[in-house]
Amino acid sequence: MVTLNPKGGPTLWCLGKLYTIQTDLQAEQIWTREKSLLAENQDVGRSLITVNQLIRRHRLLIKEVASRNKRTELILKEADMLLSQCPDVFKIESNTFESGRKQTSEESHTVELYTDEGIAFQIPRRILDELHHTSLDLRDDLDNSNCLLTKRSRLLDVGHLCFNHHWTYGELRSWLQETEDLIMLESRANRDTATAKAELRTHANVEFRVNGILAQSVRNFSE
């Protein structure tokens, strides 16, 4: 039953309503698939700076998709509400529509609906079928988009971790080289055996600490 009192005839009103919702759903589907292509991007940059930039862009994309999904859900609910007025055409299970056409009218090309006043009118079944399938396809696209965004987030997190470790290794190597250079300068200034042994112990301790830090970084990365 059509719950509103249509103007200009129930058939024209219902067809116009269905057309509007169908057009809105198709527009949301195009938008969702475009954003899914962005989420499929495998680029993680070539440095810590670039991966941080990509992470910021990805977070903005997540916010944009989340905001748009609210509007999309409202349109889907409106489509569900219209389709729910055709219980003999579709079965409603868990807020989704499975193809459960009434056996007595499987070969019919039209669906009969009623206004609040009990006035019967007919609309093509094909229009309801298209709306039904577009709704299902859009829900699948939304699920796929969320899955791709989650995978992209994980990929960028791993990329950030890799570049962060790479930067840490570079800093440690530079620090170790500076320490070795300093020890060599001090060795030239102090030629006695005791001082040389002390310098060797200092160098060994420094090298041991640096190797320990590097090993810990590798373990953290492996986890």
UniProtKB/TrEMBL annotation:
Checking SUPFAM superfamilies in the record gives:
Spectrin repeat
Looking up InterPro entries in the UniProt record yields: Spectrin_repeat
Q: Which domain of life is it from?
A: Eukaryota
Write one Pfam family the protein is assigned to. Answer: Spectrin
Quote the protein name from its UniProt record: Uncharacterized protein
